[in-house]
Structures are given as structure tokens and as C-alpha cells.
Protein 1
Amino acid sequence: MEIILNPKYRFLHDFLEHIEEHFATGEIVQQSFNEIRLLRVDELTLSVKRYGHSLRGRLKFYKMAKGKRAFIGQRLLRERGYDSPEPVAFVRFRRRMLTERTYFVTIRSSLQHSFDDVSMLSAKEQTELVKALAAYTKRMHEDGFIHHNYKSKHILFDRNEEKSGWRFALLDVNRVHRHRKPIGINRGLKNFARIVFQDEALFLCLIDEYAHLRGIDTDYARKTVLAAHTAYQEKIAHRGR
């Protein structure tokens, strides 16, 4: 058994040694290949993600476990001032050198809305929100961060009452990579390929605002993003055949 623990939460070590037993009793948030449950310990609410595994994945000794990458990614984001769920621990169970189960534990984010909930806002609020997301993404890219699974369901948001704006936090952070240099224009544009809004005008507003903030021609930005979006959808369709 391997536990990488945020020193702030040393007191949870004994609890984490029995994470599998506790996980079985948790409140289900997501139940698919990767499963997420909420666990309550004292006054804390923990979000615990148990990663699905295949034999192929278990045999990749050279590859860092997803939960470990997530733990590191969250820490890097928070060190740069991003409002991201606080990492608590990475836990791995092994059997004869093979990974059996891995868990990534965070403090549950106070931001509870994903972009799948955007329809609950007024048209004006939706526009303000996507423009704020464009600014957030621009800052992230210029800081060298890129999320390789940047989807609307992986972006949490809520109002920032203190600054009369919006707050964001990222999920699925094992797909977040940090580069030494800012993310280039084309790569930054293509990063929007997996985002889907029901309102196409809202998606175009996001692209246009990002282009404006990075000094890019909006027509070029739209063509680049829409081409990447189409290519991604075709890739998904091909996998389903």
C-alpha cells in the first residue's frame, strides 16, 4: 500500500489506510469506469475518486498513476493561485507489483455548478460567464497549464461575491500538464475542441473573447477551434464503431 499525503491532513492517515471500506459506504456522485463518492470525516467532506483499471493499464510500470498525476496537478494549480479543490492524498493498493486500486482524495470544492448547469442563468449572465471563462483559460495557458480533457463538465463555476465576478475550478486534473513556456496560440485554440454548449452562440462567444484577449483574429480562431472540434467528434464516432 502506498499513501502520498498532504502534510496538512496527517491526522487522516489511519482513515486512509482503510479507504476501501469507507469508500463502499460513501455517497455516490459518479458511477462509471471511474467512480466518485463523498465521505464525511469529522467536519470535512472528502471527494474520493476511485480510478477504473484494466490489465493493460496495470502493466504500464513506467507510467505515473492517474491519481498521482491528479495529486501533483492540483498542487501545482493551487501554488499558482488557482481556485482548485485542495488535494488530500493519493492512495494505491498493489498485488505482486501490479496496481490493484488507486484513489485520489480532495476536499470537496465549494463550487458545485458545472457548465452543464449553464441554462439556469439568464442570457446576460451566460455571456458574462463564458467571457470570464475565456479570461480564466487565457491566464491558465499563459501560465503554461493545459487541460487535455477540457470539457464543460470538468469546469466548475460559481459567483465570486467578493469581486462581483465568477470563480472557476477544474476537475479531472490528472490530464492537466504544466509547461515551462506559455501555451502557443494554435494549441490554446484547439484546447476548446471538447467543450460543448447547447447554445452555439455561447460557444462562439467563448472563442471570440479568447481570441480578443490573446490578440488573435476571430475568424481564424473560429475556424481553428471548429476544425479541431469536428476532428474530435469524428474520433469519438470512430471509437464507437
Protein 2
Amino acid sequence: MNNKGQITVFLCLILTSILLLGTTIINVVNVHSARGKAVMCATSAMSDIRAEYNNYIFEHYHILLFDVSQDGKGQGNLEEKVTETMEYNLGERFSVADCAITNYVTLYEDEYKKLKEQISEYLVYVGIETAGEYIISATGGDDGTLPESLKENLENAEDVPLEDISPEDVIADKEASDSGEEEDFDPRDFTSDIGDMGVLYFVMPDDMYVSNMMIDLMNMPSFELSHFVDSVFEMNEDFDDYSDFKTDLTSHESWCDEVKNMGAGISYATLVFNSITNPDKNPDTVLDCEMEYLICGKGSDRENLEGVVNKIVALRLPINFAYLVSDSGKMSEIKAISFSLSLISLVPEPVMRYLLAGCWAYVESLAEVRSLLEGKTIPFNKTGTDWITDFKNLEGSMNDSAREDKKGLNYEHYLCILMALNEDKIYPRMLDLMQLNSIEAGEDICVVDAGVEVSMDISVIFEGRKMSFSVTTGY
């Protein structure tokens, strides 16, 4: 009998334990399920934030971002939206105790990491290839810098005394004078006028217009984030200072490595931003010369275009100069007046010869830029048949047509080279253009503060139990 009582008690204890264990398991599963439901609802509610991406930015620039400030209502409005959505989806057994934004990531953080990622994803989507390989192929890997031997000749030219000038130079000069050519002809008079009138007057095609309108850049992302302001690049159009001329010839170093490693951002820029020769990528923009702005960062189309023209001339000048001094026929034209001009100015004849060659190469470079602005593709390296200008009629021959070369480079190829040389500056300036154009379109968004990823700490109460977790969502 006693044994039966003990067995009964033992079975009751086992049954009670099983019931307690089962209840505990049910409660644990219930709580775990409730937590999972809360996390799922939070994730779903926050995905609504992603759905509120800025339509204008995405349509025109294929970049996803959302307005963290909620049209100026503040981040609290975003937190309230998530709270309301969660409470509606969770039901009466739940209540949201707290919902707070702990962090949000912008396009510019970590050296524009998120912007670069979205750009790369877009390029994969459209299947675009970078322009770098084509440029290297078209240039034959030539970076346009002066050969070392020519640099040495330039340095040694000042050391040649006037009495060491060969008799052939004197005879050539005398024959030129006897043939009726004006003794006071100096091509540098024309290039001085270029400096006075502005380079755009001479290179812009007749049907091209560029605005003088100035825009305020002080509140733009590039100024807030990095204060990138390019110094104005100006060449010495007088060609009377040999030291300045040598500096202009070597104003850029090799850009082959930059072009070979050309980033996705440069290819992206050619797809979505306008240039003076391709204004139809986005018909409603504040600036017409957007790619030029990425390079120069000035407040007007005219300033940006002028800056780009000078930079392209700086790229072309050493190429044209190197070819010119290798062409004996063209150098004989220069020698015909270099001796008399050196006597007048007391400048060594070899120096004067190089200054005049530089003057001619400069005008040739301007003529090339004019052809580029007309939409032509021109050869990178020069030959006798590619030369455009006439030494005795520099101004008149500037408008002569350049030979088209389908394997050469066009205007936007040169913009790519210039962007590759300034790649660190183009990303904040991209944000500038997005900001300017979105404001123009009536969109009230600050691109600098817009988010691409947001994290929240959320606390939910379920049947008296508080559950806390963090959720992150983004593009």
C-alpha cells in the first residue's frame, strides 16, 4: 500500500514537471515567436522608408536616397511613422515602447563609398565599358608630355650666345626680308589679342552659346564637405617670357596611369551629365556645362568652359610643339623671322625660335579645340597632313577645318582625361549638380543629409515582457 502511495506521488511529480516544462517551452516559443514577429514588422515598417526614395534623383541619376529630415519635419517624424506602422501590424497584444534612429549613412561618408557603390551597380546594369581603354588605344599609350631630349634642348637654348648663331640663320632671315615679307611681322601680336579678348571668343563655333549666369555655390555639397576651389589656369599668351613658356609646356605630367585606372565615376558622368557638345542627357539643368563643372567647379558655364578649354590646350600644346620642332619645313618659316626678332629684343635666337614655335603650337591647339567643340574627332598625334594653321595667317587659318579621324579623340574624351586627373573632386561636385537640379525641379531635399541606410533601436512590449532589438535597412 505504501508503495502505491509513493508511486502515485512520484507520477504526480513527474506529471507536474512535464506540465511546467511544457508550459515553459510554450512560453519561450511564444516569446520567441513574438520577438520574431516584432522584428519582421519592424523590418517591414522600415522598408517603407526605402520606398520613399527621391524620384527625381533616381529618375535622372539612378541613385537611391531618402530624405531623413522628412521634408523638414525632422527625424522624429520618421520614427513616428515606423512606430505607427508596427503597432498597426502587430495587433493589440503588442505595444511599441520606443523607436529611435541611432545612425544613418549618407552618400558622402567614407570617401563617398555608398555613392561609388550605387554608381558601379548602375554601370553593371547598363553594361557600359569605361572609356580608359579606348583613350589609351587611340593615343598609342602616349601621354603627350615632352620627350626628354627636347626638354634638354629647351634648357640649353638660353646658353647659346648671339655670336654663335649660324650664318644660315642670318641668310634665311635676309632672304625673307628681300622677298617682300614684312620685317615687323610677329605672330605673338595675335596671341596677345587672344589674352585680351578671351580664349572663348576664338574657339567657340558661331552657333554655340554659353551663359554668363552666375550661381551661388556656397551652400553646395562640395563647399560644405571639402571646399574644393580650383585655381584659375591661365597660359602665357604673349610668349615673351621663356621661363613661363617652359612652365606651360610642362604644366601636366603623365596621365596614362590615371586613364588606365579610370574609375566608374568618370564613365557614369559621361552618361548622366551634360556637356557643351552633348546637352541633351538631361534637358532641364541649371548649368549647361555640367561635365565641365565637375572638372573646374566654377559658378558659371562660361568660367567652366573657359577653364576646360585652357586645360585641353595645356594637354595639346606639348604634342603640337614637339611635332612642330621636328618639321624642318615649318621651322624654316620660323627661322625666317626669329633672328631679326631676337636682335630687336636681345633674346638669344634659339630661345626666340622656341618662343615662336610655342606661339604657333598654341594657336594650333586652339584650332583643335574649336574643331572639338564643333563635335569633330581629331587625331591625337600630329602629321604634316593633320596640321591646321598657317604661320603667316594664324588668325585666318584658325577657322580652317581639322581632318576627321574616327580613331582619334573627341571633346568628351578629353573631358574624361581631365576628370581622371581630378577624380577626387568629381564626386562632391556630382552631389552639387544633383542638389542644384533637384531644387530647380521643385524637390525640397538636401543631398548631403539624405540617407542611403538607417539603423533604429526598437523596444516592444508583449504581454508585459519588454523586447529590444536593432534593425538596419538601406539600399
Protein 3
Amino acid sequence: MKTDNLTYSFLALRDKLHRSALGFLKNDEDAKDALQDTFFNLYKNGGIQTESEARNKLFTVLRNVCIDKLRKTRTIPLTGIESERLKVNSYSFEDIQKYESLLTAGLTDIQRQIYSLVTHDGLEYDAIAEHLKMSVEAVRMNMSRARKKIRSNYKLLENERSR
């Protein structure tokens, strides 16, 4: 029977599995929960043919369950956290235009035009290429260079702001 191998292997390896989970989670209750989740997941899915397969799957699934638990505990809900970075600023249209002009400073006219068509108009590269009578590769290259320049300008603005 498919669960006999699983149950037998689980009972035989329970202490080792618990120590392994405890090594990951550092908390006895969490380790016990991980063991329970591991057994339940494998029992629910079934398909265990041999004791060797059961042993391998038990340790693999246990590791994955522990990693999932660690990931869940690492996230902190944003409710109740007060931070300057979390505050939403309301910018006027003029402020946004000013900031965008600072970011796009130094772009060539064609780069600025392609950037505008992509970001503001939402056009695809092939439509822009057809509109500007350019190859799609030329549009991509110009957009790539524009993004590179914008990133550079952004870093400069952030450095100036942090001083």
C-alpha cells in the first residue's frame, strides 16, 4: 500500500526529520508544524512506492516546507509601520514634468521621441518603427540608450538629493 511505506519511513525518521526542521526554523513548535505539514503533503499526494523514495521525499519536502515558513516569517506587514519611504507624496503635473525633463536631459531628439511614444503612448517597438520609418532594431537600440541615460541621470539626482 502506498501510504504504508510513507508511514513506516516517517515514524522511523521522525527524530532526524525533527532535528533537521529544528536546524532550519530554530523553534520547536514550528519544527513540529513543519513535520506535520510534510507528512500531510506527501500523504495527500501519495505515489510513494519504496522506503527509499519515501525517505528522500520526506527530507526534500521538509526542507521546502521549512524554507516556505522562513519566507513567510521574513515578510513584515506594512500596517502600523511609519516610515518616510512609505509615505505617498502627491505631485502636481508640473512637478512630474519637471522631474521627467531632468531625467531625460541629454537624450537625443529621436531618443526622446521614442521614449515618449513607449512610455506615454504605450506603443510597441514595431509600431514606433513603422511610424518613424526605422527598423525595429534601431528603435530598440535608441530606447536602450535612452534608458541607460535616464538611469544615469536618476543616480545623479539621487546623489544630489542625499547630500
